[in-house]
């Protein structure tokens, strides 16, 4: 049964990031300009910069489940349990079949496959040493499926492969399923285990897009003229989404309301983004929300720290907001935590949601010398208290193969 006229709200947030394992801790790190990138050693490559999450996997899993499952599964389980607890919801016979899990991913299964191939290489490639959990570990629905097994959820679950636009895509899917009346509760967002696969690092390195700096915490520097590329990170952020009528009925706290969203494709290149299509995606989301560009108070940029990508997103932003009477505040989160791939969209949006309450906007990080081609009005280098209350936040997430996603949320008002 379609419920097109319902309003969708965020009632719970669970996350893990390199610089925080809760919204409170993550937010404090952003406002106090605390980044967290470290060096790790990868097979075949050696030392690289990475954003590593230090959450307690055993908080919601036993040692056997951690061992037989996946890193992305553990991240998802941690975030889902935290989000539902934050929302004041428990899975029971009353709601388990009406709860859906929708998780955006950049990729899945590479970690396990690389490790297992390496393992059998130590035994002359004898496949009897191949892990018999390989199939459930590497199927594309694994992270969402591990959540349902862990929590006893019997509603629908699946993952959405949408490259680095995946976090927003997971949320958009949850919204749509609520509006269709398919579920009453949607656990939705994005996760990434990318730092555990050498293939991603090797590919970025071969493209000349892997960041390096003598200080790991300064390696990720979107918009800075001396940026050298991407810092790969792991992470996760899942939201509890509900229809407003259901949230009000149970007296839930409400973080924010969904105002609009859009997704589209560049249709032009495997890797290089298309600023015209990015601009169109933002414009479509704004129209779908019934807004004009002047209504947007803050844009959290996707900018990853690559030379071309940052410039092209700035070009897209000028196309959307350059002719409006006021330019929104602009910030970025990847300077703090690197690029959390499938988790990036939801993590970055989560760090800005508290701005609806405290009216303070976190800045960008590591912009020591702004690239003139990335100069934008209201690009924040320090935290700022917004003039007047923030009402609308627009969140950009763009990915390889030219997939673009934009999510707009608003301050909740009854």
Quickly list its features.
2 domains, 14 helices, 414 residues, ten-stranded mixed sheet, three-stranded mixed sheet, Peroxisomal Thiolase, Chain A, domain 1, alpha/beta
- Uncertain runs: none
By DSSP (H or I, 4+ residues per run), the number of helices equals 14
Report strand %: 15-25%
Elements, N to C (H/E): EHEEHHEHHHEHEHEEHEHEHEHHHEEEE
Q: Give the CATH class of the largest domain.
A: Alpha Beta
Secondary structure: helix percent: 25-40%
Count up the domains: 2
How far do the termini sit from each other? 25 Å
CATH architecture assignment name of the largest domain: 3-Layer(aba) Sandwich
Structural class: alpha/beta
CATH fold annotation of the largest domain: Peroxisomal Thiolase, Chain A, domain 1
For the report, how would you describe the main beta sheet?
10 strands, mixed
Determine the mean pLDDT: 96
Number of strands: 15
Strand order of the largest sheet: 5-4-6-8-1-9-15-14-10-11
Concise synopsis of the structure shown:
With 414 residues, the protein is of the alpha/beta class. It contains 14 helices and 15 strands. The chain folds into two domains: 8-249, Peroxisomal Thiolase, Chain A, domain 1, CATH 3.40.47.10; 259-410, 3-Layer(aba) Sandwich (Peroxisomal Thiolase, Chain A, domain 1), CATH 3.40.47.10.
């Amino acid at each position: 049964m379609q419920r097109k006229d319902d309003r969708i709200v965020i009632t719970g947030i669970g996350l893990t990031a390199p610089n925080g394992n809760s919204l409170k801790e993550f937010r404090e790190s952003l406002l106090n300009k605390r980044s967290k990138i470290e060096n790790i050693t990868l097979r075949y490559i050696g030392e690289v910069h990475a954003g590593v999450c230090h959450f307690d996997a055993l908080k919601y899993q036993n040692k056997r489940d951690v061992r037989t499952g996946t890193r992305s599964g553990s991240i998802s389980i941690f975030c889902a349990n935290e989000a539902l607890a934050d929302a004041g919801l428990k899975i029971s016979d009353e709601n388990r079949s009406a709860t859906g899990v929708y998780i955006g991913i950049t990729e899945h299964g590479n970690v396990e496959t690389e490790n297992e191939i390496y393992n059998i290489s130590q035994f002359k490639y004898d496949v009897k040493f191949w892990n018999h959990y390989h199939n459930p570990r590497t199927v594309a629905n694994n992270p969402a499926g591990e959540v349902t097994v862990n929590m006893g959820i019997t509603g629908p679950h699946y993952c959405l492969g949408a490259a680095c636009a995946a976090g927003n895509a997971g949320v958009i899917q949850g919204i749509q399923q609520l509006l269709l009346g398919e579920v009453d509760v949607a656990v939705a967002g994005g996760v990434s285990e990318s730092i555990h696969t050498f293939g991603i690092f090797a590919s970025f390195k071969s493209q000349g897009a892997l960041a390096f700096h003598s200080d790991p915490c300064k390696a990720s520097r979107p918009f800075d003229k001396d940026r050298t590329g991407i810092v790969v990170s792991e992470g996760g952020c899942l939201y509890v989404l509900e229809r407003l009528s259901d949230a009000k009925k149970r007296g839930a706290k409400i973080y924010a309301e969904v105002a609009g969203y859009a997704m589209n494709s560049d249709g032009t290149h495997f890797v290089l983004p298309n600023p015209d299509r990015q601009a169109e995606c933002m414009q479509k989301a704004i129209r779908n929300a019934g807004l004009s560009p002047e209504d947007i108070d803050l844009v959290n940029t996707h900018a990853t720290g690559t030379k071309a990508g940052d410039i092209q997103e700035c070009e897209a932003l000028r196309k959307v907001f350059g002719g409006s009477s006021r330019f929104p505040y602009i910030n970025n989160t990847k300077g703090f935590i690197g690029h959390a791939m499938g988790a990036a969209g939801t993590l970055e949006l989560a760090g800005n949601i508290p701005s609806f309450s405290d009216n303070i906007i976190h800045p960008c990080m590591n912009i020591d010398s702004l690239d003139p081609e990335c100069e934008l009005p209201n690009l924040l280098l320090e935290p700022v208290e917004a003039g007047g209350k923030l009402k609308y936040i627009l969140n950009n997430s763009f990915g390889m193969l030219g997939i673009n996603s934009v999510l707009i949320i608003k301050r909740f008002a009854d």
